[in-house]
DNA sequence: TCTATATTGGAAAACGTTTACCATTAGTGT
DNA sequence: ACACTAATGGTAAACGTTTTCCAATATAGA
């Protein structure tokens, strides 16, 4: 395999290294004759360029790093899948960093563009992968970076100016809750995601707006603080059932939570939707196969991943304005987990 | 940020570049005084070594590439998560390649070690990411590579000698089916995974063995060829219901399939497990929250990912024998989706 | 104190590319 | 055939590290 470099190949083809490089990386900058000669030789000896050498020279690694709190979350893995595909189409590979929310690990991945292992950062967590110290340093320059939905404010930098792609979480939350209201529910609990996540805050705002629009009083005890996990759905649902004024409907801020929620409701003998309606969020591909099939807000997973990749790469290649924001469309999908209040 | 290199840092610290390199990368090879001086200077100016330079020199990228057919599959994403974590612990990053089973893309990722973007390959698909041509070339050298469960034979190379990590799929299949037999089921259907996947073939062999051990005749029409997806579970289950001698139990070779299977059974009015028992495979984290909670074979997801990472890295760093094989323990988890035959 | 040895630090080459700059050749119009 | 321009190809420097030598210095033994 392998061990032959551009010099050796140049010798074999009887041309200079410059010509080899051009013929392979910029074929149009070279005559057809040269191109053919070099490509033939390359093929013959099985030449494979060393990307490290090229990267060093061009200071372009061709990698982007994706910082994700939890890849095993179904919504995340869907986004990552389409991110990766879109990146690949443009010649980029994705280095992926599952951080489990551990600060230390975020920082490691955040440092990768400074160490030239990556050209840009895709942030799916709620904070920037840089230390306060770094952010404050006057010669700190933010690398190409886009965030998806979740980036919270930082005391040191105005994150609202960073490029992002997201759905309209406020409207989506409102849509979910409005659906319940239209079914006649008045006493609606909400199980939130991680309370420091902007998406949670926004969806909660949507909940508020829906209630307000319907003239239903907002009651603090209907807000149950959770996290975007199945287990949280299970745990918090038990608390919901303990409530003095038991709600007739629950808005779960993720489908995984809704799954845990429904399982728990059934376990305690509550019928869904006969006794309690449940609406989820995300429309993961399991949603329609739950029993009952889940009413939920569908996020455009594929489009989110693809858009993230494209904006980030545009940024890296300097063809995007640095503050591009993309709001993608969501959709309420009504299935069988919600029904009219009786 | 950043733009200062080792030369400049050496000048600032008043030492040579060699000393800087040693002080940072091999601190023990240098006096304490030197170490402190260099590290202090590095910190002061915010020096961050350029990994590309280092990689080029050492021809070690510090990356491994993971080739996965489908990251959004829950089992896969779990394995990848633990793979990534274990790799990170040893200082490696993972470049991840979701191929969707597309040959072209497998080849792209397979080429990454030749182009020095990665030091080793983790294969989760059923074929090697190299062309027949490459494999046959006499100067082809297999890069560090480990496969997990799924690698099929290749006409050009003896894949059985490659390092792998897996559970004992034959035994696991046998365990699942034996459980059904012990519940009194005689007419047991199986919905397989992708038929070209060794794990499917092995689990099927387990099915056969279980039947044989119980003296139950093996009937070809009880084998339903599927794929490891939710949708396949749905689609094939309909076929199962059409069978002349309708089975009283179904063994699904993945939990996602079982999910689709159960949803379909219920949709058609069959009770699980009253009418038909279902056993899955994987024990993804949703399994216990399905209704009914799923009886399944638990795979040690975390251990699989971790072991894969460690073997591969051992291979890269030359500390593993090149044919190491690891069989990890599985476990039958009995829940409510299986019941005695009546 | 002096020599023999161990430790430490430095100069420079190497890793495999790309590309700026220049020299050469081919192409065009007269 | 000639001058002028355009196209093409080559030489060599650069990218930022690590590491091989070797020289210098510290350490120890006598």
**What would you give as the CATH superfamily of the largest domain in chain A?**
Response regulator
Oligomer: homodimer
Helix/strand order of chain A, N-terminal first:
HHHHEHEHEHEEHEHEHEHEEHEE
With strands numbered from the N-terminus, the spatial order across the biggest sheet of chain A is: 2-1-3-4-5-11
Structural domain count of chain A: 3
- What is the CATH C level class of the largest domain in chain A, in words? Alpha Beta
**Main pleated-sheet profile of chain A:** 6 strands, parallel
Would you mind describing this structure in some detail?
The structure is a homodimer of 342-residue chains. Chain A has 342 residues and is an alpha/beta fold. Chain A has 3 domains: 6-49, 434 Repressor (Amino-terminal Domain), CATH 1.10.260; 61-166 and 302-327, Rossmann fold (3-Layer(aba) Sandwich), CATH 3.40.50; 169-299, Response regulator (Rossmann fold), CATH 3.40.50.2300. Chain A has 12 helices and 12 strands. A 6-stranded parallel sheet of chain A has the order 2-1-3-4-5-11, with helices on both faces. The first copy, chain A, has a 6-stranded mixed sheet with strand order 7-6-8-9-10-12, sandwiched between helices. In chain A, helix 7 (132-136) links the parallel strand 3 and strand 4. The first copy, chain A, is elongated, with a radius of gyration of 25 Å. Chain A starts with 5 loop residues before the first helix and ends in a 9-residue tail after the last strand. The model of chain A has no long low-confidence stretch (mean pLDDT 94). The interface between A and B is large, with 59 and 58 residues. Chain A binds a DNA duplex (30 and 30 nucleotides) through helix 2 and helix 4.
């Amino acid at each position: 395999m392998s061990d032959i470099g551009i010099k050796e190949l140049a010798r074999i083809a009887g041309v200079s290294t410059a010509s080899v490089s051009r013929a392979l990386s910029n074929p149009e900058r070279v005559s057809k004759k040269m191109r053919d000669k070099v490509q033939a030789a390359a093929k013959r000896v099985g030449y494979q360029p060393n990307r490290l050498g090229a990267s060093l020279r061009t200071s372009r690694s061709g990698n982007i790093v994706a910082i994700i709190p939890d890849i095993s979350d179904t919504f995340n893995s869907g986004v990552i899948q389409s991110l990766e595909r879109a990146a690949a189409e443009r010649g980029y590979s994705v280095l992926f960093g599952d951080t489990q929310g551990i600060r230390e690990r975020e920082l490691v991945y955040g440092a990768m563009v400074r160490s030239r292992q990556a050209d840009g950062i895709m942030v799916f967590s709620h904070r920037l992968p840089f230390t306060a110290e770094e952010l404050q340093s006057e010669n700190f320059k933010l690398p190409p970076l886009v965030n998806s939905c979740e980036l919270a404010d930082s005391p040191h930098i105005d994150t609202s100016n960073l490029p992002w792609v997201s759905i309209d979480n406020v409207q989506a939350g409102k849509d979910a809750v409005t659906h319940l209201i239209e079914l006649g529910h008045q006493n609606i609990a909400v199980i939130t995601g991680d309370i420091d996540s902007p998406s949670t805050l926004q969806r909660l705002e949507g909940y508020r707006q829906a209630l307000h629009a319907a003239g239903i009083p907002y009651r603090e005890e209907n807000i149950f603080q959770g996290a975007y996990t199945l287990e949280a759905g299970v745990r918090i649902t038990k608390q919901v059932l303990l409530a003095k004024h038991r709600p007739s409907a629950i808005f779960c801020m993720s489908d995984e939570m809704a799954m845990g929620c429904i399982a728990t409701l059934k376990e305690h003998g509550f019928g869904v939707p006969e006794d309690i309606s449940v609406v989820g969020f995300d429309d993961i591909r399991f949603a329609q196969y739950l029993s009952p099939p889940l009413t939920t807000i569908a996020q455009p997973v594929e489009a989110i991943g693809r858009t993230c990749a494209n904006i980030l790469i545009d940024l890296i290649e300097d063809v995007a304005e640095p503050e591009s924001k993309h709001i993608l469309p969501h959709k309420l999908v009504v299935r069988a987990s919600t029904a009219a209040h009786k």
